[in-house]
Amino acid sequence: APAPVHLIGHSMGGLVMRALVEDAAFDPESVASVITLGVPPTGVPVDLEVALAQLLGSPAWTDCERQAALC
């Protein structure tokens, strides 16, 4: 088996780590330690999936003439 890893997360990375260790499929033997820095204690104030979908679906992200680097 691979050696356990040490996880360090800042801000959103800490929220991702929190979701990982709370997942039912998480194997606690795979992580030696978790260190978080600057992680919001109550999570994010908006539904992140909904907010990202709205942002990425907006014309500012999908208009190839205005955002040529994205196309």
- For the biggest β-sheet, the strand order reads 1-2
Question: How far apart are the termini?
Answer: 42 Å
- Overall morphology: elongated
Supply Rg: 17 Å
Q: Let me know the number of strands.
A: 2
Describe the structure.
This protein has helices at 12-22, 48-56, 59-62, and strands spanning 5-10, 31-37. The protein has 71 residues and is of the alpha+beta class. The longest helix has 11 residues, at 12-22. The protein starts with a strand and ends in a 9-residue tail after the last helix.
Entry summary:
Helix content is 34%, strand content 18%. The protein is an alpha+beta fold and 71 residues long. A two-stranded parallel ribbon has the order 1-2.
Structural descriptors:
71 residues, alpha+beta, two-stranded parallel ribbon, 3 helices, elongated
Show the helix and strand layout:
Blueprint: E1 5-10, H1 12-22, E2 31-37, H2 48-56, H3 59-62
Parallel strand pairs: 1-2
